[in-house]
Amino acid sequence: MKKDYKFKHQQHTTKFINELNSINSIKPFTPFRISDEVWLVGKHKGKKISETPASYIQWAIKNMNLTETALSILNNK
Length: 77
Hints:
Blueprint: H1 5-24, H2 54-63, H3 68-75
């Protein structure tokens, strides 16, 4: 029996977005440490922003409730 990995990924992504929205619907947050630009949450947790695919950075900008500082840093990458 072949597993449907695309569906499992979609479930994970939906769950992650729901968690982000529930935690951060009240106030914006920074999903990475400003000092060394390492992700604290998500698919690329523990990686530097410079090692992150551009598609993920664009996704984060669109889907995360970011602080102005975080948004500025990601927009300059």
